[in-house]
Each structure stands twice: as C-alpha cells, then as structure tokens.
Amino acid sequence: MTRHVRTAIFPVAGLGTRFLPATKATPKELLPVLDTPLIQYAVDEARHAGIERMIFVSHPSKAAIERHVMEDARLTRELRARGKENAAEALSEAALCPIEDDVRFVMQNEPKGLGHAVGCAKDHVLPGPVAVILPDDLILGPVGCLTEMVKAYEAGKAGHLVATMEVSEDRVHRYGVLSVTGKDGPIVLADGMVEKPKAEDAPSRQAVVGRYILDASIFEALETQTSGAGGEIQLTDAIARGATSLGLGGFQFSGTRFDCGSKAGMLEATLELAMEDPDCLAVLKERGLVEQRPAVAA
Ligand code: UTP
Q: How far apart are CA 96 and CA 39, in angstroms?
C-alpha cells in the first residue's frame, strides 16, 4: 500500500461563530493576517508539500473562498492594463489555475462537524493516504508543517499521523488530546485520542492541531461514525477508532502554531508577521510594543 500523500482536503464549511460578527458575510478562512487570507497560507503549505489534488469542502454561502483561491484572469488583465505588473504577477502566482492545477470544490450543505466535512471529500480523493489542513490553524516556520509531516509519514509506519504540541493543563479542554504510549524521535506514539476532555480526564497534554495525514480507511470509519462532542461528527472519534489497528502517531512540528479561529490567536499571528514588515514594525516601535534599539553611532 502506498504511503505517498497526493491529496489535501481543506474543510472550510464551518460557521465561524467565534469570530462573529466578522464572519457574518466574510468566511473565517478569508480573514487576513496582515494582507494574506488564512486560506492562502494553507494552499501555499499544501503546494510546498507536493500535494497533487486539493479538495475544498465548502458551503454554498462561502463562494468567496473559491473566488479567492482560483485565478481571476479579468482582475490580472485589469491590473496589467493599469501598469500594476507586480501586483498582477503576485496574484497569479498565488492563485490556483483551473487547467494546470487539480482542484475540486465539494459542498457540505450543513455544518455537521469536521468529521462529516472530511467524509464529504470521499469520492474525490486520489488513492493512498490523505492530508487534512484546517486553515484557521496557522503554522509558521522555516519549513511548512505539512512538508515535515509528509516526510515523516512516508518514512514511518503509523496509519494516521496528526500534528501535536504540548499545552498546559488548563488548555487541554480546548483540543483533541492523545493517549500517549511512547515516543519515536519527533513522533509521539498513541493508542487513542479524546476530543476536548476535562483537565482531570485528559490522557496527556499532547494536543492535536489542524494538520492530519490519514489512512484512506478513515472514510469508511467516518461513514459509521455517530455524533460526539457538541453533537457533531468528530474527526477525532473516527481517528481514535483506527488507532490500535492502524497505528497512531503525533508529529511534533517545528513551527509555531497560531489559533486564528480566535481573536487572541489572530492578534498573536498578526503581531508575529508585523515584526517582519518594516512599516508595521515602525508602528509597533512607536507604540512601545517592541523595544526601540538605540541607533548605532557611525
Ligand atoms: P472550527 O470548529 O474551528 O470552525 O473548525 P467553525 O465551526 O467554523 O468555527 P467556530 O468554532 O464556530 O468559531 C475547523 C475547520 O473545519 C471547518 C471550518 O470551516 C474550519 O476551517 N468545518 C467545521 C467544516 O468544514 N465543517 C464543519 O461542519 C465544521
């Protein structure tokens, strides 16, 4: 059985309630960190990881996501006609092309949970394991998280590999948490996972964040998955069911993860990237939010 990861699924059909009213008319996945929407970071990460087919599981009310990720020939022409060659070039490089790229949009008409959203992609995936990327988990670092995970997955044995990070005890209730049995380099071995446990019931402090590489049997597991926490079909529950037979690993990625589905996480990500932008950095310095270094005498 191949361990080559060819497909990435982007579940983008959720309601984004934590970010209302911003998400009333604008999909959460299009909220920007500085000038780049979250979905763009996710698409770039998948591209760098060598993904061949991208499947967006969206909702009819969120058509703007498709408008953003796909190329807009009219807009690029218009920019070129106005002499804005650089902007046109940047837009067309970032966008997906309906002819050259293998892209599909599938609708999840009712947001019944992340597991249900992933299941909607079943008939569209290429053979082999699939990657799942949650765009509201932004992971920044010198190497893309999915690139690292694909490498680790292809070299390893676990059927399901999920991105994990250690969180403090008072935060475990916000995450899926691994039931840890051992360690193998950057991979935490586990025999199960629990969605949003109370601190006292949490099997460990290894929290799962929004990157997964899943054995193709996940689709069968999802078909028979009953609703779990919050009345939703949970991806976590379907992963946990295959943990012992397929093997489950938690990959400790090297980058920094920002929970951009929350205001605080979005602010943190924005500040992080603002430090790399000279104009924004000047504002942060003026406001005393970062240290003003004394000018070095010539
Ligand atoms: P979240 O639970 O973070 O997103 O799901 P949400 O439900 O939209 O946000 P809140 O909690 O109400 O604020 C993570 C990802 O899974 C997608 C979301 O769009 C997001 O990208 N999702 C979630 C679906 O595609 N379908 C669902 O039924 C639920």
A: 12
Structural contact between residues 191 and 243, judged by C-beta atoms closer than 8 angstroms: yes
Phi, psi of 176 (to 5 degrees): -80, 135
pTM: 0.95
Q: Is the CB of 117 under 6 A from ligand 1?
A: yes
Question: Is there a domain that residue 137 lies in?
Answer: yes
**In-domain check, residue 295:** no
Cβ distance 284 to 271 under 8 Å? yes
Ligand 1 atom with least separation from CA of 233 = 28
- Residues 198-236 have pLDDT tens digits of 999 999 999 999 999 999 999 999 999 888 888 899 999
Pocket test for ligand 1, best of 9, 15, 26, 259 (most atoms within 8 A of CB): 15
* Torsion angles phi and psi, residue 265, rounded to 5: -65, -40
| Residue partners of 38: CB distance under 8 A and separation at least 6 | 28, 29, 30, 31, 32, 135, 136, 138, 260
Q: Is the CB of 46 under 6 A from ligand 1?
A: no
User: Considering the domain boundaries, does residue 291 fall inside one?
Assistant: no
Assign residue 205 the CATH number of its domain.
3.90.550.10
Cβ–ligand 1 contact at 134 (below 6 Å):
yes
CB 113 near ligand 1, within 6 Å? yes
